[in-house]
Amino acid sequence: MKNINKIFAVLMVMLVSFPAIAQLDNQGSQDVNSTVKIKELNQRKAELERELAIAESKRNMSESGVAYDTQELLNIRQDSICLELRSELLEVELALKEQIPSKNINSLIEVLNNKK
Amino acid sequence: MKKLFSLFVLLLLSGALYAQDLVVTLNGQKVYFNILSEKDKSVGVTYFGSITDDVQSEYSGEISLPSKIRHNGEIYNVVSIGSKAFSGADKLTGIVIPMGITKIGAFAFEGCTSLSKIVFPSNNIEIGEGAFFKCPNIQHITLGGEWNEINLAVFRWSDKLESITIPAKVTKVINAKKLMHLKEINVDVNNNYFASIDGLLYDKCGETLYCCPRAYSGNVVLNSSTKVVTPGALSDCYGVSKVVLSDSLETLSFREFARLKSLNEIEFKGVMPVMTALDASGECFLLQVANQDLIITVPKGSLKLYKKSLIQKPGEYKEIGGDIPYLVNQDALPSVKSMYGIK
Description:
The structure holds 2 protein chains of 2 kinds. Helices cover 90% and strands 0% of the residues of chain A. Chain A is built from 2 helices and no strands. Residues 106-116 of chain A have low confidence and may be disordered. The radius of gyration of chain B is 27 Å and the shape is elongated. At the A-B interface, helix 1 and helix 2 of A face helix 1 of B.
């Protein structure tokens, strides 16, 4: 009976611990995913900043020989191109901010585990 | 046990991956907020979920934002509309922004293709870049009663904005010419700085014309006491077919009519031609026009004087008080043969 109780207790401990351990393993891979995601976002951010710098340099240009109203339409179009890029850059920056909480969770788990 | 506890905390904190901290239901519509400061008890309106979610914004219809919300028994002040808060909300038709909101974030209403009505708070408000980018249907705007300055370029993507009313305390209006479809500028009667006469923007006395809206069409008849046409006031008004200039006019640039493609008549009421340009000899009466066949009418008794004064020679000329020389070609000069005297 005592042996059965011991086996039962061990089984119960395993049952409780397994999902937590699995979650922490899972958290480990989430951490890797998050790092990869952050890297991708930072790369995209750098790309957009480069594209935006080029687009901005073309804003409000005035080319000789181009009729005023044509030039105005060109400038309006360039304005929109710049804003599209800025909008996408903003989304990337917001997505990066959203990645930060997962780092905080990892830090917290680390702290809790170290207290054990 | 501790691992289970950390798991619990992990699950709780994973909610921080989303923009919103809380949601409030207003007239059956969920509005999402994030807490900006627990200390100040301030929140901002935001979007639902993650910015990377490929889901349509739920915001729809006309939304009157609250100035305060209750959360966990505490009152929070709504102080901003966050960046991208309503981005892509293509069913949003109107927004009423309450007092206390002092900032609209960048691209906050980007792509709100059905947005037609905006009511701003009376307090001053900072409007972020592209806040109304790709909002083509904005039609009715109520500007803030305490505003001192307006940059109308923030609405430049609207195809439907035909009329705007300048509030009482505004003393500076910029980029009115960015509104391609604006037909009429009105001014609150209590404004001590501006006045609207026939939909055109003047100073309070009606002596200085500041702006003819771009989509104004037909005849522009300047106020009878107008002395000054601010450079650019009439520019790019492609639908204007006739301009009648008051006899009190003292200041007018020769370039004012250069791009008015539909202009086919200019009527001068003054008995003396107004000087409009500088050449090597000094001030002169020069007109640069888009349509060389346009008719110029002047008082009958002054016809000879006007014909003698009108510059017919192409070349470089400056605006009076300006330093930049502009080349005026022959095909931009009206002919004296098109000048007529009228009683």
